[in-house]
């Protein structure tokens, strides 16, 4: 009997978050009982007893073909007979596609777009996130074999505070596909319409990655091994790639074991230019007054950064599966997955700051100026007596890494010819780690120059007089505040249990089946910063020791071909490179790692969720149509724990307070609300830890209808109410990113989360036609509308807040009026059209194409984050008994990524070209080739025109070059 809504959602203490939900234990017990019972029944049953008749299903004629054509036929078969709006990618042979992770394969589908990094990262050479139908990646759900998969990131900006945008990223709901190599895939099912029996969380749709199962292999023993070398032309390095699969099953085909392993290393060099900022030259400065005020109020480039990013990525992991057919009626599957990405990197950033040059006391008057209307296209700044015109930042993150894993058990049990059950129970966890060192070195009295070359090209910068290494200096005032290290960690984990039942009626009945089930999950996401290093505390514990040295420069400089892939010459000749190992050694020797004194409060959060859900669904069918009607009830209880700074107990040289003393705690006790915990002793200020609890219940109806207009033409209609929970950092980010303006006009600013955000809720409508006009061919059109009743957008409010950016010399930190940017509820709509075409055209040749139009806007008229209005994919392939090849091009138009400064920031239109080829030497050995990013794509960000800068202004460009994979595949 299905549990009642009242029983399922019985009240519980809001603060109770048990370690393992009761449902997991119940599901596990049921699982073992069913296995034991069926095993006993099997021993007494006659071996001749026939299996119950399986329900009749429509299917294409079975044709034994391997490779690209088999993959496409299997995909179309699954798409055609799916109950909802579905796309399918099948991989019959490992490595047949020019794809290195699952996201690479998905970007070829209509309505699906990918990004190679969040806005804060910029972009790299491998697809990372997947989004659907003009929404951001957090509104698409990713599962493996129908269950959740925990996710984490190696990039510091994705581990803790922030929200998706170009100047911050943050801990998101979206799954990083960097940990999911394409070799693990048997099939990927993309659902664009919701059904009551599907896991909630995908407003735009869901991606279910189906891995291989031991008993699905044809042979008793199968082995597949892939050996490749990958050459990255911009990094100029070659690395090994290895994957292997071994599968065994017994002769009775009722027990099998599969082991799959992968070890894939590659190097990345990303050349970039970022934080390109235009400003108006103040008419009150010497530069603005020179030559009769000719340059006053003219637009000039006030700052930019040339960045050289170098990384080694090593992805290692394994899939282990065991499948048992305990009886003709019970199948049990156990599977485990582990994937780890070691991602150590260095990032050298050369700052050119004309804004500092002209604004300094006795500011520099630029020379060699080139004017184009009101825009200063070129200028030179001699920077005599100026310490702030140029600087160098060296970042080293030797321990950057991320990993994910799961342990899952599931079963399928046929209780009778009509009634069947299936269930899952499992645990998944992920972790992202960072130990980031950084060092700022200033370059005083160093002349700089820039030359604007066009909006789609980098700005050329130079050091006209070269560089004298003896001029590298520490920060003014020897504060050491911007020379440090920071340890960060994100943890994501979930325990889950699910049980589903299905009762099938006779074929003559209008109702073909009733489905019902329940799911329980306990989820926790944590972003932590255990320590942020600084100069040691002095002996009296009321200040820090001054730093008077810098890491030594060994004479190295930027590579001569720096920026060659950016479409212009950004300049790098003579720019110094400091050995990252020297930065690490210098930091370890000079900085304190005291966990109390160096405990930062910002960016830290914990989000706990207890989720319970139940559903019922009716399936109806006749010869030429089928339909579904269902309802899913979901309750989410949330606890968000964050830190809040308090304006008390500041340590100065004369007030007698010391860090961590009882007197410091006494000074702050009046600022701590009930239920909160005070923390003192940190050089970043005192703060308290407090939890906020909330609950939300959603009823999610769904319906779909499929009608065979003819034996080749299919009509689909679907509607559903859908939901997705807010990003973790949107809920839990501590106030951070403080900026201080002494004049308070514009006001001081900060950013943080909103612990009381409600889920994103939308109504999803679909109407489409699919014409299967020939074998392995389809022409389809789909119209979609998503009406968002609740959408998370950008908001702001004036608040009295403790601003930690106010210097000690000015009485800081202090409470001042602060404009706080935080996520807020809004509404919006995404509507559009998807067109798809696929057909073998002649001989072994075939083509595919699709186009998606998505008009996705928030209530304020801004495009939704991540929405590309136009995207398309073009593909062609050839295959015969010996040789196969595939070419694929994916393009997406511009999309909004958030705010940069006070302007809307966009990711410019871009496209990627990929190719693969396979030559079969014999039945065992195949030679392979794959090429990614063959068109050397440039990732460009720009600010939309505004009142200050009346043109679309490029803010960043990145290029990572091409990657070539050559090797062989062994198959037995």
UniProtKB/TrEMBL annotation:
<comment type="similarity">
    <text>Belongs to the TonB-dependent receptor family.</text>
</comment>
<feature type="region of interest" description="Disordered">
    <location>
        <begin position="467"/>
        <end position="493"/>
    </location>
</feature>
<feature type="signal peptide">
    <location>
        <begin position="1"/>
        <end position="41"/>
    </location>
</feature>
<dbReference type="InterPro" id="IPR037066">
    <property type="entry name" value="Plug_dom_sf"/>
</dbReference>
<dbReference type="GO" id="GO:0009279">
    <property type="term" value="C:cell outer membrane"/>
</dbReference>
<dbReference type="Pfam" id="PF00593">
    <property type="entry name" value="TonB_dep_Rec_b-barrel"/>
</dbReference>
<keyword id="KW-0998">Cell outer membrane</keyword>
<keyword id="KW-0798">TonB box</keyword>
<keyword id="KW-0472">Membrane</keyword>
<keyword id="KW-0675">Receptor</keyword>
<keyword id="KW-0732">Signal</keyword>
<protein>
    <submittedName>
        <fullName>TonB-dependent receptor</fullName>
    </submittedName>
</protein>
<dbReference type="Pfam" id="PF07715">
    <property type="entry name" value="Plug"/>
</dbReference>
<dbReference type="InterPro" id="IPR012910">
    <property type="entry name" value="Plug_dom"/>
</dbReference>
<dbReference type="InterPro" id="IPR010104">
    <property type="entry name" value="TonB_rcpt_bac"/>
</dbReference>
<feature type="domain" description="TonB-dependent receptor-like beta-barrel">
    <location>
        <begin position="452"/>
        <end position="934"/>
    </location>
</feature>
<dbReference type="InterPro" id="IPR000531">
    <property type="entry name" value="Beta-barrel_TonB"/>
</dbReference>
<dbReference type="InterPro" id="IPR036942">
    <property type="entry name" value="Beta-barrel_TonB_sf"/>
</dbReference>
<feature type="domain" description="TonB-dependent receptor plug">
    <location>
        <begin position="82"/>
        <end position="205"/>
    </location>
</feature>
């Amino acid at each position: 009997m299905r549990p009642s809504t009242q029983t399922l959602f019985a009240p519980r203490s809001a603060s109770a978050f048990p370690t393992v939900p009761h449902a997991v234990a119940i599901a596990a017990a049921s699982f073992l009982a069913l296995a034991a019972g069926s095993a006993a029944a099997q021993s007494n049953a006659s071996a001749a007893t026939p299996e119950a008749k399986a329900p009749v299903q429509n299917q294409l004629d079975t044709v034994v073909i391997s490779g690209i054509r088999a993959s496409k036929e299997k995909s179309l078969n699954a798409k055609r007979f799916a109950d909802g709006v579905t796309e399918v990618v099948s991989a019959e042979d490992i490595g047949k596609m020019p794809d290195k992770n699952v996201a690479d394969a998905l970007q070829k589908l209509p309505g699906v777009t990918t990004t190679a990094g969040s806005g804060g990262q910029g972009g790299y050479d491998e697809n990372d996130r997947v989004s659907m139908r003009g929404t951001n990646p957090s509104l698409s759900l990713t599962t493996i074999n129908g269950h959740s998969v925990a996710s984490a990131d190696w990039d510091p900006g994705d581990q803790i505070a922030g929200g998706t945008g170009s100047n911050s990223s943050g801990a998101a709901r979206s799954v990083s596909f960097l940990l999911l190599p394409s070799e693990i895939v048997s099939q990927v099912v993309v659902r664009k319409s919701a059904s009551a029996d599907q896991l909630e969380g995908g407003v735009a749709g869901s991606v279910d990655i189906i891995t291989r199962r031991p008993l699905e292999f044809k042979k008793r023993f199968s082995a597949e091994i892939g050996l490749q070398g990958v050459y990255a032309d911009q990094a100029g390095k070659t690395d090994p790639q290895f994957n292997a699969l071994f599968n065994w099953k017994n002769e009775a085909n009722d027990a099998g074991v599969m082991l799959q392993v992968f070890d894939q290393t590659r190097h990345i060099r990303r050349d970039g230019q970022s934080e390109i900022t235009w400003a108006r030259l103040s008419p009150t400065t010497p530069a603005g007054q020179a030559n009769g005020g000719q340059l006053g109020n003219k637009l000039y480039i006030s700052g930019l950064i040339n960045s050289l990013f170098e990384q080694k990525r090593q992805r290692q992991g394994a899939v282990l599966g065991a499948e048992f057919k305990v009886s003709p009626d019970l199948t049990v599957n156990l599977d485990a997955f582990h994937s780890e990405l070691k991602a150590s990197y260095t990032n050298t950033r050369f700052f050119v700051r004309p804004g500092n040059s002209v604004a300094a006391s006795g500011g520099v008057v630029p020379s060699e100026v080139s004017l184009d209307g009101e825009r200063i296209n070129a200028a030179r700044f001699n920077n005599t007596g100026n310490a702030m015109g140029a600087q160098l930042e060296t970042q080293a993150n030797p321990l950057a890494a991320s990993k994910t894993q799961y342990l899952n058990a599931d079963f399928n049990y046929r209780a009778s010819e009509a009634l069947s059950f299936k269930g899952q129970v499992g645990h998944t966890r992920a972790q992202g780690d960072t130990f980031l060192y950084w060092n700022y070195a200033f370059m005083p009295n160093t002349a700089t120059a820039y030359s604007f070359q066009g909006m789609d090209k980098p700005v050329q910068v130079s050091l006209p007089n070269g560089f004298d290494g003896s001029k590298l200096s520490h920060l003014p005032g020897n504060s050491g505040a911007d020379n440090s290290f920071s340890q960060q960690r994100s943890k994501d984990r979930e325990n889950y249990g699910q049980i589903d039942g299905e009762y099938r009626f006779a074929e003559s009945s209008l109702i073909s089946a009733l489905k019902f089930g329940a799911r329980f999950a306990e989820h926790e996401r944590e972003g932590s910063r255990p320590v942020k290093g600084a100069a040691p505390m002095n002996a009296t514990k009321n200040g820090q020791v001054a730093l008077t040295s810098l890491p030594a420069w060994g004479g190295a400089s930027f590579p001569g071909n720096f920026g060659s892939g950016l479409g212009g010459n950004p300049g790098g000749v003579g720019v110094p490179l400091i050995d990252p190992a020297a930065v690490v050694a210098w930091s370890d020797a000079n900085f304190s790692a005291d966990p109390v004194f160096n405990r930062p409060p910002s960016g830290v959060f914990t989000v706990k969720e207890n989720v319970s859900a139940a559903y019922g669904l009716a399936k109806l069918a006749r010869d030429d149509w089928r339909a579904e009607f269902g309802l899913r009830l979901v309750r989410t209880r949330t606890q968000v724990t964050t830190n809040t700074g308090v304006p008390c107990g500041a340590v100065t040289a004369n007030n007698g307070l010391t860090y961590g003393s009882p007197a410091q705690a006494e000074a702050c006790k009046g600022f701590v609300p009930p239920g909160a915990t005070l923390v003192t002793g940190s050089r970043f200020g005192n703060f308290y830890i407090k939890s906020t609890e909330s609950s939300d219940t959603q009823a999610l109806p769904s319906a779909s209808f499929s009608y065979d207009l003819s034996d080749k033409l299919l009509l689909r209609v679907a509607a559903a109410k859908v939901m997705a929970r807010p990003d973790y950092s949107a809920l839990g980010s501590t106030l951070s990113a403080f900026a201080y303006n002494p004049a308070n006009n514009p006001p001081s600013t900060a950013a943080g989360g909103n612990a009381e955000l409600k889920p994103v809720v939308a109504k999803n409508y679909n109407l489409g036609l699919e014409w299967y006009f020939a074998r392995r061919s389809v022409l389809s059109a789909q119209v979609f509308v998503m009406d968002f009743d609740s959408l998370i957008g950008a908001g702001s409010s004036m608040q009295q807040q403790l601003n930690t950016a106010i210097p000690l010399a000015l009485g800081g930190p202090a409470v001042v009026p602060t404009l706080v940017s935080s996520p807020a509820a809004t509404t919006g709509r995404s509507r559009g059209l998807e067109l798809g075409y696929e057909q073998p055209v002649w001989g072994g040749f075939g083509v595919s194409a699709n186009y998606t139009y998505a008009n996705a806007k928030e209530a304020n008229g801004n495009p939704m984050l991540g929405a590309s209005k136009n995207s398309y994919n073009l593909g062609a392939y050839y295959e015969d008994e010996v040789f196969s090849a595939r070419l694929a091009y994916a393009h997406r138009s511009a999309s909004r990524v958030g705010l940069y400064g006070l302007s809307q920031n966009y990711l410019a239109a871009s496209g990627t070209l990929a190719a693969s080829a396979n030559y079969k030497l014999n039945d065992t050995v195949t030679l392979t080739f794959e090429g990614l990013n063959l068109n050397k794509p440039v990732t460009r960000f720009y600010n939309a025109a505004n009142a200050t800068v009346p043109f679309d202004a490029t803010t960043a460009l990145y290029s990572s070059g091409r990657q070539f994979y050559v090797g062989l595949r062994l198959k037995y």
